[in-house]
From TrEMBL:
<keyword id="KW-0560">Oxidoreductase</keyword>
<protein>
    <recommendedName>
        <fullName>3-methyl-2-oxobutanoate dehydrogenase (2-methylpropanoyl-transferring)</fullName>
        <ecNumber>1.2.4.4</ecNumber>
    </recommendedName>
</protein>
<dbReference type="GO" id="GO:0003863">
    <property type="term" value="F:branched-chain 2-oxo acid dehydrogenase activity"/>
</dbReference>
<feature type="domain" description="Transketolase-like pyrimidine-binding">
    <location>
        <begin position="351"/>
        <end position="527"/>
    </location>
</feature>
<dbReference type="Pfam" id="PF00676">
    <property type="entry name" value="E1_dh"/>
</dbReference>
<dbReference type="InterPro" id="IPR001017">
    <property type="entry name" value="DH_E1"/>
</dbReference>
<keyword id="KW-0786">Thiamine pyrophosphate</keyword>
<comment type="function">
    <text>E1 component of the 2-oxoglutarate dehydrogenase (OGDH) complex which catalyzes the decarboxylation of 2-oxoglutarate, the first step in the conversion of 2-oxoglutarate to succinyl-CoA and CO(2).</text>
</comment>
<dbReference type="GO" id="GO:0007584">
    <property type="term" value="P:response to nutrient"/>
</dbReference>
<dbReference type="InterPro" id="IPR005475">
    <property type="entry name" value="Transketolase-like_Pyr-bd"/>
</dbReference>
<dbReference type="InterPro" id="IPR009014">
    <property type="entry name" value="Transketo_C/PFOR_II"/>
</dbReference>
<dbReference type="InterPro" id="IPR029061">
    <property type="entry name" value="THDP-binding"/>
</dbReference>
<dbReference type="Pfam" id="PF02780">
    <property type="entry name" value="Transketolase_C"/>
</dbReference>
<dbReference type="Pfam" id="PF02779">
    <property type="entry name" value="Transket_pyr"/>
</dbReference>
<dbReference type="GO" id="GO:0009083">
    <property type="term" value="P:branched-chain amino acid catabolic process"/>
</dbReference>
<dbReference type="InterPro" id="IPR033248">
    <property type="entry name" value="Transketolase_C"/>
</dbReference>
């Protein structure tokens, strides 16, 4: 011990002890008061405190932190008070992280002088991708001059058991590929709730990480403050000055329950051995080695005990959220509320839909250096499998437009971190059929960030998704997925049917601080399919923006005294089936193009239904349980007294997939001929 005393100043050791005692006292209080604290599930850092504190003491205000649900000691070490932690424990209104919306030690913080903590989920591996996205954003900002004279880094804190998640591997792959400034701090207590290490892993993270070339690893005793502090110091130095990722694997005991709801005595058989490695005892011995008197140590513990008791009384008395608080921060306010710019400039030829999107992104990237585009095959060689990103990498450089591996989860989840750094990522999933691996990130990380951070961290991103059938694309290149996406609350969804709308909505999406999914129908991209010629439009000017939630009346008709009329509510390819079918009826079919699915222009829908008293909802998706059926249900409820016929829904047959064979595909999908039959039936009802 004498040989190590001069490595760390005594004041640092005393500070660490204060934080450890505070965390320990909190854990003991929560257990003593479990009749109160047990109302909401929580975990504590007991046994993990030293490595967490060693990390927190090295973090600065320029850095980003992803702290996981057992990291309350780390939060204390960056300056969060016991009272502030308790407000979250008790889900109080003034909880600084979430306003009472999420669990203890699930932090979100944007406070001057503190490390920045973007929102993350319940941290069983999913946090690795958003945090790696932060590091990728830091690197991009440094490369492009958006970030000067600083060397920030990101810290991603993980439990070892969570590292078996595939998304952790995606994050590590990108970190070493791009040489990102990130520390992966793995706290290994050899438990995964009730499953022990020998049951759930073939190797610990030190050995697993060796498969990622260029990832330096340190394996340490996370209960030893000297070793923990100096290792983190070395890791931070490597990351800041050598621009490469590091993984620290810290072995620690779990001395408290997994959570308040899963108690250690139910299943643990190693409690005595774990207690022998208590970091509290080790750090106390270190203080003695620094010649700190017992009386001083006792005084520190008494002061902290009194503070924690007092803070707990105040926290218990603090105000609960009000019922109306439920409704705040679903979305951050958008500045785009009106249609502006010139939609139809004179002297221009029509532009196909895919180029309208391309030109919109080109204009945005030329104007905004914080904009960047990435995904599978969008880079220099190909520019997207639909040429939807053609020439962009050549024009803006491969640091702004680049390919990713086949990693839908990373593509989507990394936008959380990119946005947190102040960038605007535009990303692409190559086909809607392949969005499924990314839904975890879209639902858990992207969509909930603004709401669960109480408005601190909206995720500003655009996700482009080529969608729909376009002629024998088969079961893996033809799917419609909007019903799944619209069920995810917290994202906006556009589904334009013309080039002008696609460009205007793309611009609106860019300036919107919320996550936006752009569903772009592959069959409309070039207007090659018969009847879709009107998808090509005169390209709007650079200033044109189209607000979300405003439907378009494609064909307007007036009610008649001597014949029935009907309105068709649709979007995407449905617009063109409806236009073709309407030619068979004498001014009897009004067509409403939704343009955006979330938010939905209910006013335009209901006004049209009330005018015509008959309605068809037309979709390309399979019908049962679909978004279209939910619209039909709303129409039936809100317009019941105006309806002269049941609301009809026409869509694809309820098959598991769209077959490759063109005969079978045609049988499954809706088309104008099938729609004519439905229109005729409802007009004669």
């Amino acid at each position: 011990m004498e040989l190590q005393k001069n490595k760390i100043h005594i004041d640092t050791v005393k500070k660490a002890f204060r934080y450890l005692v505070t965390a320990k006292t909190l854990a003991e209080l929560y257990e003593d008061q479990k009749h109160i604290t047990g109302k909401y599930v929580h975990a504590t850092s007991r046994g993990h405190e030293v490595i967490q504190i060693a990390t927190g003491l090295h973090l600065t205000a320029q850095d980003y932190l992803s702290a996981y649900y057992r990291d309350d000691a780390m939060l204390l070490s960056i300056g969060i008070t016991p009272y502030e932690l308790m407000l979250q424990l008790l889900a109080k209104r003034d909880d600084i992280f979430s306003g009472g919306r999420t669990y203890y030690s699930h932090p979100s913080l944007k406070r001057e002088g503190f490390p920045k903590i973007p929102h993350q989920s319940s941290a069983t591996g999913m946090q690795a991708i958003p945090t790696t996205g932060i590091a990728m954003g830091i690197q991009y900002a440094q490369q492009t001059g958006l970030l000067a004279n600083e060397k920030p880094l990101a810290v991603c804190s993980l439990g070892d058991a969570s590292c078996t998640e595939g998304e952790v591997s995606e994050a590590l792959q990108m970190a070493v590929l791009k040489k990102l400034p990130i520390l992966y701090l793995v706290q290994d207590n050899e438990w995964d709730i009730s499953a022990s290490a020998d049951e759930i892993r073939a190797q610990d993270m030190t050995h697993f990480a060796k498969g990622f070339k260029g990832l330096e690893t340190f394996t340490i005793d996370g209960t030893d403050f000297i070793e923990s502090y100096t290792t983190i110091e070395k890791a931070f130095d490597i990351i800041r000055n050598e621009n490469r990722p590091v993984l620290v694997h810290a072995k620690v005991p779990l001395l408290n329950h997994h959570t308040s709801g899963v108690r250690k005595e139910w299943y643990r058989d190693d409690l005595e051995e774990a207690q022998s490695r208590d970091p509290y005892n080790k750090l106390k011995e270190l203080l003695y080695a620094y010649d700190v008197e017992v009386t001083e140590i006792d005084q520190i513990e008494k002061e902290i005990y009194d503070l924690v008791q007092s803070d707990f009384e105040k926290a218990c008395a603090a105000e609960d959220p009000k019922p109306e608080d439920l409704y705040s921060h679903v979305f951050a306010p958008t500045p785009i509320t009106e249609e502006k710019g010139n939609r139809t400039p004179e002297g221009k030829d029509k532009t196909v839909m895919v180029d309208s999107a391309l030109f919109a992104i080109r204009e945005l990237m030329a104007k905004h250096p914080e904009a960047l585009l990435y995904g599978q095959d969008v880079g220099l060689r190909l520019g997207g499998v639909f040429r939807e990103a053609a020439t962009l990498a050549k024009q803006f450089g491969q640091e702004r437009v680049f390919n990713t591996p086949i990693q839908e989860a990373f593509i989507i989840g990394s936008t959380v971190g990119m946005s947190a750094v102040g960038l605007k990522p535009i990303v692409e999933v190559q086909f809607a059929d392949y969005i499924w691996p990314g839904l975890n990130q879209l639902f858990t990380e992207v969509a909930r960030s603004n709401y669960l951070s109480n408005g601190q961290w909206p995720v500003s991103m655009i996700l482009r998704v080529p969608i729909g059938a376009y002629g024998s694309g088969g079961p893996y290149h033809s799917s419609s997925v909007e019903s799944v996406l619209t069920s995810i609350k917290g994202i906006k969804i556009a589904y334009p049917s013309t080039g002008a709308d696609l460009k205007g909505l793309m611009k609106a999406a860019y300036y919107d601080p919320n996550p936006v999914v752009m569903l772009e129908h592959k069959g409309l991209y070039w207007s090659k399919m018969k009847g879709t010629e009107d998808a090509a439009t005169v390209e709007p000017d650079e200033d044109y923006v189209l607000p979300f939630g405003k439907a378009r009346v494609v064909d307007e008709v007036s009610p008649c005294q001597d014949k029935n009329t009907v309105t068709i509510i649709t979007y995407g390819m449905g617009v063109y089936w409806a236009k073709e079918a309407a030619k068979n009826f004498d001014n009897q079919v009004e067509i409403i193009d939704l343009r955006t699915l979330v938010p939905l222009d209910e006013t335009s829908i209901y006004d049209s239904v009330k005018k015509h008293n008959r309605c068809i909802v037309l979709t390309e998706e399979q019908v049962s349980g679909s978004y279209a059926e939910s619209i039909a249900g709303r129409i039936s409820k809100e317009c019941f007294q105006f309806l002269d016929a049941p609301v009809e829904v026409l869509g694809a047959k309820d098959m598991p997939a769209i077959p490759l064979n063109s005969v079978l595909e045609a049988e499954m999908l809706p088309n104008s001929e099938k729609l004519i039959s439905v229109i005729d039936s409802i007009l004669r009802y």
